[in-house]
## 1
Amino acid sequence: MTSTSPAPTPAPPTGRRPASARRRALGLVVCVVALVVACLLSVSFGSRVVGWSDVVAGLLHPDPDDIAQAAVASRVPRTVLGLLVGAALGLAGAVMQGLTRNPLADPGILGVSFGASLFVVVGIAWFGLSTLTGYVWVAFAGAGATMALVYAVGSAGRGGATPLKLALAGAAVTAAVSSMISMVLLTRTDVLNTFRFWQVGSLGRADTSAILTILPFLLVGGVLAVAVARGLDALALGDDLATGLGQHTGTVRALGALAAVLLSGAAVAVAGPIAFIGLVMPHLARGFTGPSHRWVLPYAALFGGVLLVGADVLGRVVARPQELEVGIMTALLGAPVLIAIVRRSKVREL
């Protein structure tokens, strides 16, 4: 005779989240603290170093007759803009990598930033654009047109839009668009002085009106990016499996592409084509969170804000009393981080 032991009684639910979720939430808190520290350093350091008492006074009730407090107040828009642009580029890069399943996808490598740049330089040269509002709309048009072109070229032929084909299409379109930009600038040298400071990537033109101009586009783009997070997780499994899980892949791609265009277009219009943030920050985020886009997106946004604000502070400190543009500093900081990530993870596709 054989006897069967009763099945073990399942443990009652404890009502606590898994430890991994708690660690991720704690990591977000640490990122927020790091971002606050970077913002405080940004309003403190520049051509003039400001003490903490003047920082507090300049933030709460600045005295316009006090030079130190006036310096703090003047740095606040620049700091806020750096935070917004860095977060936007980090989000845009994460969304693009999720949509294409390509670890090299970002607004720069896929040509989106260069497409926006081309439309802006054409607007300056031939249509007399000189305001941020004009830059924003033509940058959106250039970003959207370039993204559509890259995807059309990368999806042609057998196999559809594979990560390798998209990367090659992005490289080809980027080379072509860069040549067009050079052609316009060579024929219109009067535009060169206006364009060259914008092209390198800078936060030096930050003011409240610039922030208010791009803020609605960034908010809409951020909401769309969060809305497609689960769809991006499904796309990572392949289109057939994503459809089987109830995801409308066409809708996910359309909303994700719109989010990426809004985020990258607004960021490029106000600060120029800043490199490496959209490429590196999603990889850095996945190292802490894993592949789930519910966590990758906020981490990438926070990392992007910290890196861009921190790079802007370093650019003001290392060349004092002058400054290095933030686009130069992000390239210097981002390239070693990207090399380290690639050597450690050896990621081929998402």
## 2
Amino acid sequence: MTNSLRPHGYQRAPLPPAREAEPTPPTPHRDTAGHQTGPPTAPTGSKPKQRDAFFDNAKYLAIVLVAMGHAWEPLTDYSRTARALYMTVYTLHMPAFILISGYFSRSFDMRPDRLKRLITGIAVPYLIFEIAYTFFKRWADDDPTYDFSLLDPWYLTWFLIALFVWRMTTPIWKIIRWPVPLSLAIATLASVSPDIGDDLDLQRVLQFLPFFVVGLHMKPEHFQKMRGRRARILALPVLACAFVFAYWAGPRMNKAWFYRRDSVQELAAAPWTGPVMTLALFGCSMVLVACFFAWVPRRRMWFTALGAGTLYGYLLHGFLAKGSRFWGWYDANPWTHEPLGEIVVTIIAATVITLLCTPPVQRLFRFAMEPKMVWAFRKDPAEQARKRTTTAA
């Protein structure tokens, strides 16, 4: 019937000739933040994509702040200055790290190669380090009854679980409207929900979620604005004001707020403080993260290459950080509680985390952090077809 309505002599226009699909180059090996870590896989004759020095610098400096914060923690009950520095750093270091992780998760989808990378780069290291931490705690803390728990991350492994959950939900955050307000609403509800419990450390997963969602929707021009001259000038007085406020608030505020691992009920706070503190900490963290990015160098530095090994440093330094508590190192060395001693502790923390991010350490622990595990996955028929086509050409 449809053809009878067409003018006499009408003929369907011929379809264009089918084009043979061009072979897709294999996805390069990448770290958990999305940077390429393996050998370049660009086609012959083309220049491989270079890592952005700015983000490697930011990751390295953020992980140094993480190590410093852990080193300052035992000093916070003796030094008001250490407590103020601790609160200031805890406001920005993990939010900065999480925001970068979100930014490099923008291209994540359920493609097989990316799911494999999610398993080998996040799930498997979580399992390995959760077991390693369990045996370490039994030995170092003289606690032979401490049980391994797959669902209850111990110490630093919560970040791997969180990154796994966040990345798996990335396709959802990319298609819904108002993702950031929704993630803030979820974080707020989590802060007043004591029944969430410790499984998978979901309190932290949900309360830190907004920073990942923000990073997921950021664009290169947003970072350009934060790296401008005006931003650098404004960053210094803002950071100074944040430290002064932290110095005043230190004795008056529970530092557990910055961990985001407990509900307001577990912190013995009024229910209304959940929404207030969630939004206030989010706002403060975003401002300080912007100040941090403003002073991150844009050019290659001596530590730029260490940005590829930050997850190594993050997980490995946990043994030293916890060991110093288990073995009473701070109590056995009273000089650490003096101003000069605090400076020495800070230098030691920065030096140790730097060494743990170096290429030799990466090569030594790559079996645990970036296992290839080719034997564990089925071969992708599409990838095999692409390889045959490339070979035949």
## 3
Amino acid sequence: MNAEDQIYQNYVNILKEELVPATGCTEPISVAYAAAKAREVLGVEPESCVIAASGNIIKNVKSVVVPNTNGLKGIEAAAAAGIVAGDASKKLEVLSGIEEQAKASIQGYIDGHPITVVPVENEIVFYIAVTVQKGNDEATVVIEHYHTNIVRVARNENVLYESVSDSDQGSELTDRGCLNVRDILDFANSVRLDDISEMIERQVACNTAVSEEGLTHDWGANIGKVLLRAYGNDVRTRARAVAAAGSDARMGGCEKPVVIVSGSGNQGMTASLPVIEYAKELRVSRDKLYRALVLSNLVTIYQKTGIGRLSAYCGVVSAGCGAGAGIAYLQGGEYEDIAHTIVNALAITSGIICDGAKPSCAAKIASAVDAGILGYHMYRNDQQFFGGDGIVTKGVDNTIHNVGILAKKGMRETDREIIDIMLKHTSKDAVAEK
């Protein structure tokens, strides 16, 4: 692939759009971003706040710790943090600069101001509308489809900004329709390192630091530590453990930034950390590692394009396949090796549900990475799943297409049931506390 080709530039742009830093789980951070922007538009600290959110947002914010809030969870905490101390100009790092005094005031704001969460029933899977009010003045900020995609800003009766796009990819993102496995591999082999090195270096540095935090301290269910203690220290176990440990820390509210993929820190860590661990074991060059990470990231993004940002289908399954592809590449794998690795892995783990961000995400990451590694070793041992085996179809791109349909359309009712179950438990927990 030539650097002058449009598809080459599209692939570079896709990576630039996707591999961005975020402090905290991205759904609560998106709520905090909208709230910080709404306060900015209002011009003063509001007396009240209403958050209208789709079920998937409620699901993904409910059980995860919001960073820099002294351990608070939930939409109310995310909105309050954005209002009290958020910096909207930092987007997904909106809560990164909060000082200790401001942390303490977030709970005070929650206690002293009404914050109302309203579930929204519409066809938009990713939807957040934050309305803040003081006296007769109010401001509203609406985000749709992905985490920083503000589509409407209003103050009182005045619409200050409104997007004309209703695409679930957003009008500002590069069209992902150019993605396919063969071209992704061609790009990984031919990309000029100067075009991608800055973002890949940042991914390696940030995600490794969060993983080390998870392995060193007590976070979540400590899945990374459990894996190493229970299964030993071989590279396959380490690859699962480093990714799981990153999630342990992040779901527990770690304040260090992560470079995300497809809008998700867990996917960003799953797509990168196992590949980095294998690169250390194999002692490959920096060039080879970076190309493997380009491959893993783009394979993950490609799968998620058909699924959407949020669904009932666990996103780390896609990232585990990406990691498997990257690991295959590090070991000299070519197109057939990589294609079969992806198909085999999808046949193993497709169907793991997403029931929100929380400590068990780390265990799902471990399973997804294991499937990616197994998918590679199956093919190296002359074993594979064939077209007609369940959702597997002849051709890797066709199988990825099937998974997209399964996740986006077939699992809609599953998603509704998951959200219903989670909201019922929330109501029961609230009654029990009273």
